[in-house]
Design goal:
With 288 residues, this protein is an alpha+beta fold. It has helices at 14-23, 37-42, 78-82, 85-90, 92-98, 104-107, 112-118, 124-131, 149-152, 227-233, 240-253, 264-283; strands at residues 7-9, 28-31, 50-53, 63-66, 69-73, 135-140, 143-148, 153-155, 158-159, 166-173, 180-186, 196-205, 208-217, 224-225. The chain is globular, with a radius of gyration of 19 Å. The structure holds flavin-adenine dinucleotide. Flavin-adenine dinucleotide (FAD) binds at residues 29-37, 39, 54, 74, 101-102, 106, 109-111, 113-115, 117-118, 123-125, 161, 166-167, 193.
């Protein structure tokens, strides 16, 4: 399908990008990898009058690993994450999730900032951001601001970004060295968006679950932490019965709508199964 017509700009600085977005009052859109925006244009789901290309903003391509955590610039691509060996130690759950994203060609172009701003409820990065209490840095005419991931995603394809703001960075808190994790998703075909996915993490202290995180993707209009499922494990002994209780709590906590890909009832069951499998991966040999 042919795209609607639009003007195109490719500025070299963030300040110029923001000035262009501000001048067009919501009629302009940034373009990063184009892997979500171009299909949206083709289907006439959006029709900006100006596309502002971010590809010259090399300062947004940084991956920074410090004692405080991991920071990814908005123009970091999926391929960059998978090709950064230090990230596998610094944030193994993030890398495990990114391995499920789309196909080779899309991973070569799709970016961190594009995924966050697009806010697909079934996308992996927003889910990991919410599960791990990441912060998203946005910059616009009023300067930079930091938004908790839990507050950033407002609904399907809706975020807290203002029309003149771009995402510049996402920051993940430091990953404790011995933290255990699991990520499981189910998609009809390899590379498709997940019908449902679960991200879990916990620290093991004297055979007990501590600092439990259970995140769910694809079962609502945005990614969520499942607090009831976390409570089912927190402080308890690491045992099969606890895993089953957590999976049941996860399933009860969600109320996904029916859509063309699956019924809500199917997704409700599926998230329990994904949580159970992810927990088993995280627990490994801890259950004796
Ligand atoms: C066939 C196919 C399968 C896919 N499967 C998956 C999948 O399994 N999991 C998954 O997570 N994704 C999947 N994707 C989406 C892919 O990961 C996209 O690349 C990603 O969601 C958007 O990144 P982008 O850089 O391509 O953004 P673009 O398409 O360039 O932009 C997307 C949106 O974000 C805005 N935007 C871009 N960058 C910024 C920024 N820095 N600040 C503010 N706004 C910005 C744009 O204006 C636009 O509204 C798939 C895509 C395709 C085509």
């Amino acid at each position: 399908m042919k795209l609607p017509s639009f003007d195109y700009a490719c500025p070299a600085t963030i300040a110029e990008v923001i000035a262009l977005l501000a001048a067009h009052g919501g009629e302009a859109k940034p373009i990063a990898g184009g892997q979500s925006l171009v299909p949206m244009l083709a289907f006439r789901l959006t029709a900006p009058t100006l596309l502002v290309d971010l590809r010259k903003l090399s300062e947004l391509r940084q991956i920074t690993i410090t004692d405080a955590g991991v920071a990814l610039g908005a123009m970091v691509r999926w391929r960059d994450i998978l090709d950064a060996p230090r990230l596998r130690q610094a944030h193994p759950l993030l890398v495990a999730a990114v391995e499920h994203i789309a196909h080779y060609q899309i991973r070569n172009r799709g970016t961190v900032g594009g995924s966050l701003a697009h806010a697909d409820p079934a996308a992996e990065l927003p889910g990991i951001a919410v599960t791990c209490e990441a912060e998203i840095v946005a910059r616009g005419g009023a300067g930079p601001r930091v938004i908790a991931a839990a507050d950033f995603f407002r609904g399907a394809l809706v975020t807290a970004l203002r029309p003149d703001e771009i995402v510049t960075e996402i920051r993940f808190p430091a990953w404790p060295r011995r933290r255990r994790y699991g990520f499981r998703e189910f998609a009809r075909r390899r590379g498709d968006f997940a019908l449902a996915a679960a991200a879990v993490a916990f620290d093991e202290t004297e055979q007990k679950f501590c600092n439990v995180r259970v995140g769910a993707i694809g079962v609502g209009d945005r990614p969520v932490r499942l607090n009831a499922a976390e409570r089912a494990l927190e402080g308890g002994v690491i045992a099969e019965a606890a895993v089953a209780g957590c999976a049941a709590a996860a399933s009860s906590a969600v109320d996904p709508p029916d859509d063309i890909h699956a019924s809500g009832a199917y997704r409700k069951t599926l998230i329990g199964v994904m949580v159970e499998r992810a927990l088993h991966d995280a627990i490994g040999g801890l259950i004796v």
